[in-house]
Amino acid sequence: MQEVSTSYTAAGLITIVLAVVLVVLLSILGYRAWQRSRVSPAERERRRCARLVSIGKMGDGALVEIQESVVFYSYAVRGVEYTASQDLALLGRSPVEINPVHSLCVKYDPRNPANSIVVTP
């Protein structure tokens, strides 16, 4: 019987090391992408508000109700009436700042008018 040699050449060892390094780097990049995709609700709301502040259009709204830290309001865009709410606790704000007598200033997404805010971070 012939004896099988298990010695590797320099090129073979370099190939194996490079493959291991590539797998480790891809694993690290995948883990970091997964970590970035896990956004807290407060951060998600902050990002949504920031986007609406930058691209949103202004409109008038009416206060419907305040329950604890949630503000319910209604507004109309191009003849369509919308009713929405915003949780101010996620922004660290208090509904005490809202005057129930005056109309509200609503900022909404022109492409999706149902996406709106009344209080910015």
Spatial extent as radius of gyration: 27 Å
Please summarize the sheet with the most strands: 5 strands, antiparallel
Number of strands: 5
Helix content: 25-40%
Quaternary structure annotation: single chain
Q: Number of helical segments? A: 2
Distance between the termini: 79 Å
Overall morphology: rod-shaped
Question: Mind sketching the topology for me?
Answer:
Blueprint: H1 10-37, H2 41-55, E1 57-67, E2 70-77, E3 80-87, E4 104-108, E5 116-117
Antiparallel strand pairs: 1-2, 1-4, 2-3, 4-5
Commentary on this structure:
The protein has 121 residues and is α+β, with helices and mostly antiparallel strands. The protein contains two helices and five strands, in the order H-H-E-E-E-E-E. The chain has a five-stranded antiparallel beta sheet with strand order 3-2-1-4-5. The longest helix has 28 residues, at 10-37. The mean pLDDT is 85.
